[in-house]
Amino acid sequence: MTGKTYAARPRRFGVVLASLALMATACTSGDAETQSTEEAAPAELAIAPGDGEETLPPNSPVTVAADGGTITGVQLEQSVGDEGEEEDSLYDMSGTLNEDDTEWVSDWNLRPGAEVLVTATAENEAGEESELVHEFTTEDAPEGQRLGLASNFPNSGDTVGVGMPVVINFDRPVTNKVEVENSMEVQSEEEIEGAWNWVDDQMAVFRPQEYWEPHQQVSVDLNLAGVESSEGVYGHRNYAIDFEVGRELIATMHVPDHEMEVEVDGEHERTIDVSNGAANRDFDTTTSGTHVLMERHESLTMDSATLGIEKGDPGYYRLDVQYAVRTSNSGEFVHEMSANGNIGSANTSNGCTNLRMDDARWFFENTLMGDVLDTTGTEREFEWNNGWGYWQKSWEEWLEASETEEPQVTDGSGTPGPVHGEGL
User: 20 to 30 Å CA-CA from 275: which of 16, 38, 53, 310?
Assistant: First the structure.
């Protein structure tokens, strides 16, 4: 509808009242004035992209603008025929209004190969509604040009410790890291600031400013569909990860003391005798720093050849152990080593933390991926990118290394910057 002006209509009820007033009093003179108003023009709507456009880049933003009124609703539906499905799948899109409700912008990118239907409504000052509908299509992302996930930690349904990072491994390199960072939103029941860092071109890691508050739910929405991760490569679908942060378990070791103290939710839980690295060289020195517990094995063959120390080399070992919990990617585990007679009195291991059988079983059964082990007292510092050593960076260092250099608040308020293509 255009901004058409309608003829004024007499307010008949007002005219009748004026006539009655003239008849009821002799002191009133003059002709009654007929009161009238112009009807308000309908609100004008504009939608971009234009109606009927074809093969748009998926990272095109969708915008709605209202002139002479306010936007009352925007529905954006995407119909995509997924492989293996006979019927199309529908995907709605959320968006954000400006403060005066006159402009709306889609929050995320469009799905590749989608038929898109946008229905917008607005009202003028008189409450009269206008509607505009646009349909258009996006170009597909063919096989070999799709960004997806290779793996992620944690997985949906996991219960983790308070030090748990969110680790996303992509199946191909990412060069447009800002757009990808801003497409990944983390929400938690207890609000906190966090940020993403890139370990390499295929691994992004989210870490909060401080440890997660225990006993809460966390969700990670990877709105990757349509994001251009590198030239001509687009995310093909979205992913969601939902996990729980359990109780707070913090273990501490001062290596010269030969013991580990474990606290659960701030209360002392257990003291464990240990034997750490002999520290004859860098390789067999236990690292000092904040470790996050990683994978675990009820039984494990530990072979130094996997770390480049072959049979016949100084320091070579091959051992079968039980109840092994990884703390780094450089071969450090907390594990059972009942054959070590120096547990509780001397550090004689190859760099791992050796425990007696009963303590090793307890540690294995009562800890979670994401629990924290703080280690001090050695000259070998734990590297930030060795395993999940991300707490080795200060918050200032972590935030500065983010591609956006801005924190993401986990309250559902959105990500720090744009997800759409450059210049769009």
Answer: 310
| pTM passes above 0.90 | no
Contacts of 358 (CB under 8 A, 6+ apart): none
User: How many H helices and E strands in the chain?
Assistant: 4, 31
Distance separating alpha carbons of residues 324 and 153, to the nearest angstrom: 19
Class for domain 44-137, per CATH?
mainly beta
* 161-424 carries CATH number 2.40.440.10: yes
Q: What is the largest CA-CA distance in the chain?
A: 125
Cα angle: 346, vertex 315, 387; to 5 degrees? 80
- What pLDDT does 23 receive? 34
pLDDT in tens, 54-68: 999 999 999 999 999
Tell me the Ramachandran region of residue 265: left when phi exceeds 0, alpha when psi lies from -120 to 50, beta otherwise: left
Tallying the residues shown for the chain, one arrives at: 424
- Per-residue tokens: 47: 């939608």
**Would you state the structure tokens that stand for residue 370, as one six-digit string?**
């994401």
**Triad 411, 415, 420: Cα angle to 5°:** 150
Average pLDDT over residues 325-332: 96
Which residues are bridge partners to 342 per DSSP? none
Give the integer Cα–Cα distance in Å for 396 and 404.
13
pLDDT at 82: 58
Q: Which of 291, 303, 359, 290 is closest to 331 using CA atoms?
A: 303
Other C-beta atoms lying within 10 Å of the C-beta of residue 397: 11
- DSSP 8-state assignment for residue 179: H
Give the domain ranges of the chain: 44-137, 161-424
How many C-beta atoms lie closer than 10 Å to residue 143's C-beta? 7
How buried is 16 (Cβ within 10 angstroms: 0-12 exposed, 13-18 middle, 19+ buried)? exposed
Q: How far apart are CA 2 and CA 20, in angstroms?
A: 40
